[in-house]
Protein 1
Amino acid sequence: MERAIPLQDAIFNCYSAGSGPALIFVHCSGGSHRQWRFALADYSQSFQVIAPDLLGYGANPAWASPANPYSVDDFDLLRSLIPDGPYHLIGHSCGAVLALETARKAFTGAFRPPESLFLIEPPAAYLLRDSAKNWTLFERVSRQCRAAIAANNYAKAARVFMGFWIGHLPCC
């Protein structure tokens, strides 16, 4: 069932169902909790499933600017959903990075760490720093994406990003 979660000065949409150990599903950019609909239906038979919509996705308010317009962010939202008992984090793409960062913060002792992590296609661009050639290319693509967004040319930003992501580089 979908429910609204008030958190400081924002309200987030979140799906939750079932009972037992918690599975927290974190969607990719461009998605919502609905990307997990089949897994949520299956796993809610044996687990408590929790799948928030991140800020700007699903039914949640959009980011007003690149700077966080709220006093909360996606990490705060995810942290607020962690139950007292055992939980597992499942993330896809940018959701995988958020799940990984949540686990990293948990292992510093800030709160209970997850029992496990299941990360699907985490974009770990920072790993490219060990290769000057690849890091230079990544920086060039990043600059082009940011420039296109600043010019309100979202189609160009998407072409540049997807060209890099899937291995076609018409932009570079």
Protein 2
Amino acid sequence: MKKITFFYALLFLFLSHNVWAQTIVHSYAHSHNDYKQNKPLFLALENGFTSIEADVFVIHNKIVVSHIYPLFKKKKALEELYLKPLEQIVLSNQGRVYANDTHSVILLIDIKQNAVETYTQLKPLLEKYKAILTSVENGIVVKRAITVVLSGNKPIEILKRDSVRFCFIDQAFMSIKKDEKNEDVFPLASCKYNTILSWKGVGDVSFLEKEQLKQQVKLAHEQGKKVRLWASPENENVWKLLIECGVDLINTNKLNELNLFLTKIKSLQ
């Protein structure tokens, strides 16, 4: 049994290194509720995504991935579904997720229940994988292959008190103010698409809405923060607008379609 397990481990490392060495990596691509895909994590990596989202609950002191509390469904652990395979991939690619790209891939963990309880359970789990995770060590950000960002119910104050930590917070996008200096806590800022835009991709977009988005994105970028709008309409016209306005991450459930769109855009540049 041990020989078979070892064989498959070697096969996995070989395939991940060789298949993804040729992947076109997309800095704009965010896999929304990635765990719902038929191949969680791996479909996103096959399509060159640099941001992946997982909703979590704490069940019997274990971090479990699910959109709603899984009373009857089989429980999938965050560690088994994401952290452990990511560690194997990073080790096989000499410290990177993609052999041909240096992006630190975002693992966005959306906390669905009590923020403090979840963070208390999450801290030792992330510590276990600290060799691959971007960290803050006494105010200094040390970039590594995976950057964990917490969303949903956010443990902001308790996280800020940690002198050494391996995760960050997703800031409310419209709360960003001028001259903030907190990217060591908030490297990413998000909001729902219709908070700013009502356009669905047909007809003309409102000039005022577009300018408001551009100005708020500019403010975020001045502070070193990436921007994501969630629940955006899933079509190419909207994706083009988001890129034009400087939005960093396109939120999608259509991984193959976004990959094709972004690949086409790159080929025209």
